[in-house]
Design a protein that fits this description.
The chain is α/β, with parallel strands linked by helices. It has one domain: Aldolase class I (TIM Barrel), CATH 3.20.20. The protein has an 8-stranded parallel β-sheet. α5 packs across α6, α8 packs parallel to α9 and α11 crosses α15. It is globular, with a radius of gyration of 21 Å.
Length: 404
């Protein structure tokens, strides 16, 4: 077994935190599944903005869709991106079947302009779910105040939900309640629950990026707050999906809402580049990794570094951090709003790029020819072939690093 396969054997599903047409067309995504234990993928507005604005691979489809009368930028974006999600889902379908529908998912996010609109989120999520028409896709819904009732309603309608932009343990409690209530509504209506899947994406490294700024220089607590916060969240998962309420749903065929560690690329270069993987190894979790983190773990990650599950230590770390001046509640609230704003900015950039691509070349000043991404793709495929020839089970295809 290679290092990533050992990580998977330790109970961690490894998902790729990016998706693009280049990955699919070049065969790189399939290679990552075969050689790097990838069993799922996540996407967000920033990921697709990077993929579409930095490549000409979408241009022909974009022009064809426009010629058919699709002119609204958001509709054009869906036409492009949903094709990528379907293709990835089809590649992952054997994993989905082999794991009895527990793994093998690809996620697509509701547009960020709806983050504070419950009804709008529900309507768009239903539309996306129906258009994707794959059992192994998830619709990403942010864990905002408006997102919580949407999560319940979508679960009650039988839609797989990836809850995103989750930072606070208190908010996570609300997310679990929304999921359980949605399942209970289905059971009460004599509807099946055995095919419904959900994950709760708990963001990690961004918490340390802010907490470290509130700690004294040289504090031993630097680089430890985010992991402790995530560990307490995992403790909630273990307790909430074990009681009488859960056992009644489990008897009806329900599946637990797995914790997913997001934002696991290390932000501080002085920390280990696999910190947020090694410190959060536990049964039944998912870690969605950007390319750099995936490559780092494949090279030197230690899958035997498993968390012992001592919640007291995690709680004590957060108590000490609070005493040292860390306001974790304020940090997580700020991160939620910043995440929404960041995705909104990326989404606006994406729509503007789509509009620009439809203008005549002389109006946009766009230079045709090989893009940076395409040149990089050629190098990646060549490198993969070279490495595969020398060591077939360790071949690696690099992908764009778009952090969570």
């Amino acid at each position: 077994m290679n290092r990533l396969e050992r990580l998977h054997a330790a109970g961690v599903s490894i998902w790729l935190d990016t998706l693009s047409r280049q990955l699919l067309d070049s065969g790189a995504f399939a290679t990552l599944m075969d050689d790097y234990a990838i069993t799922g993928a996540t996407s967000n507005p920033t990921i697709f903005a990077t993929a579409i604005t930095g490549s000409d691979r979408y241009d022909d489809q974009l022009r064809a869709a426009a010629a058919e009368g699709i002119t609204v930028p958001q509709d054009l974006f869906f036409a492009l991106a949903l094709d990528d999600v379907r293709r990835a889902a089809d590649l992952l379908r054997p994993v989905y079947e082999a794991t009895d529908r527990r793994d093998g998912f690809v996620s697509f996010e509701c547009t960020p302009d709806l983050a504070d609109d419950t009804a709008g989120t529900i309507d768009q999520a239903v539309e996306l779910w129906n258009r994707l028409a794959r059992p192994n896709v998830m619709i990403k819904v942010p864990a905002t105040a408006a997102g919580i009732p949407a999560i319940e309603e979508l679960t009650a309608r039988g839609i797989n939900v990836n809850v995103t932009l989750l930072f606070a343990v208190a908010r996570y409690e609300q997310v679990i309640d929304a999921y359980l209530t949605g399942l209970e509504r289905r059971v009460a209506a004599a509807q099946s629950v055995d095919a419904i899947a959900s994950v709760a994406s708990f963001f990690v490294s961004r918490v340390d990026a802010k907490a470290d700024l509130q700690l004294p220089a040289g504090s031993e607590l630097r680089g430890r707050v985010a992991v402790a916060n995530a560990q307490l969240a995992y403790g909630r998962y273990r307790s909430r999906f074990a009681g009488e309420r859960w056992r009644a749903l489990q008897a009806a065929g329900a599946r637990s809402q797995r914790p997913l560690w997001a934002s696991t690329g290390t932000k501080d270069p002085s920390y280990s580049d696999v910190l947020y993987v090694e410190q959060l190894i536990a049964p039944d979790v998912i870690n969605t990794m950007p390319e750099a983190t995936l490559r780092a773990f494949a090279d030197h990650g230690d899958a035997t570094h498993r968390w012992a599950g001592h919640l007291e230590e995690a709680a004590e770390t957060l108590r000490r951090a609070e005493h040292a001046g860390v306001d974790l509640a304020a940090i997580t609230a700020d991160l939620e709003r910043e995440g929404v704003r960041s995705f909104c900015d990326s989404y606006r950039e994406l729509l503007e790029c789509i509009e620009a691509k439809l203008q005549p070349p002389q109006q946009t000043g766009r230079v045709t020819g090989t893009t940076t991404e395409a040149r990089g793709a050629d190098r990646l495929v060549q490198n993969a072939a070279s490495m595969a020839a020398s060591s077939p089970r360790t071949a690696f295809v690099t992908v764009d690093d778009v952090p969570s």
